[in-house]
Amino acid sequence: MAENESLDYEPDVLRVLQSKDERKAYYDKLAGVYDLLAERSEQPMRNLGLALLAAKPGERVLEIGPGTGHCLVQLANAVGPEGRVFGIDLSEKMVTAAQELIEREGLADRVSLTCGDAESLPYDDDSLDAIFMSFTLELFDTPEIPRVLASCRRVLSSGGRLVSVSVSREGSPGVMLRAFEWTHRHFPNLMDCRPIYVRRALEAAGFQISESRTESMWVPVEIVLAINP
Predict the structure, then answer these.
(1) How far is the C-alpha of 223 from the C-alpha of 92, rounded, in Å?
(2) Cα separation of 52 and 50, whole Å?
(3) Strands, DSSP E only, in 101-204?
(4) Which has the closest alpha carbon to 132: 171, 96, 85, 99?
(5) What are the domain boundaries of the chain?
(6) Rounded to two decimals, what is the model's pTM?
């Protein structure tokens, strides 16, 4: 796919300009300070997404891109001792930080972490009840997104739920969104993600949309609940 080419459901979406190795190295460097930089601003949006996912006792739930692990803790508490939570992240340092938090919280018996790529999820077909992603889907390049979502559909059971919380390009781009995209275009090593059309991507991947809302952080954020038919 050419540099400026996009998928039909993602018109005007910028491409990711860093390789996976560069993205991995970026988050390895960021792991120690990530909470100071992003947790306060992102946490309210993540909490809305977790509420929409509504993980239940006994469920098997995956978080893609758990970062330092705060949502893993909430998911593990929600599924209880009979449930199981999985996390997969490209960054080894993020996995280490998340594992340390899980152990401090006394939840290591119900959480399993893996360093890996969401394009090839290392879980059995139809083995999960729900998947959660927050500020993660927009980190994947445009042609990678359908492969990630196909992998999600494979591991989700029929009727399984997926919630994505992502920076959105829906609506008319305002000043902050344009500044976001300008920074990504000119300084991809500082702004490694870009706004995407979340609901459109999920629909194109074959998910059924159950609920979708757009909130405002300092840029628009789509929070979408999708069902694996």
Answers:
(1) 27
(2) 5
(3) 111-115, 128-134, 156-167
(4) 85
(5) 20-227
(6) 0.91
Given a contact cutoff of 8 angstroms between Cβ atoms, the answer to whether 180 and 169 are in contact is no
Mention the CATH class of domain 20-227.
alpha beta
User: Alpha carbon 157 to chain centroid distance?
Assistant: 19
For the stretch 66-93, pLDDT in tens is 999 999 999 999 999 999 999 999 999 9
What one-letter code names the amino acid at 200? R
What is the Cα–Cα distance from 180 to 138, expressed in whole angstroms?
13
Task: Region of 174 please: left (phi>0), alpha (psi -120 to 50) or beta.
Answer: beta
The tens digit of pLDDT for each residue in 157-193 reads: 999 999 999 999 986 677 877 887 888 888 877 677 8
β-strand partners of 215: 221
8 Å CB contact between 24 and 90: yes
**CA nearest neighbour of 172 among 43, 5, 28, 12:** 12
Angle at 19 between CA 89 and CA 96, to 5 degrees: 25
CA–CA separation, 15 vs 217, rounded Å? 22
Residue 32 has pLDDT above 70, yes or no: yes
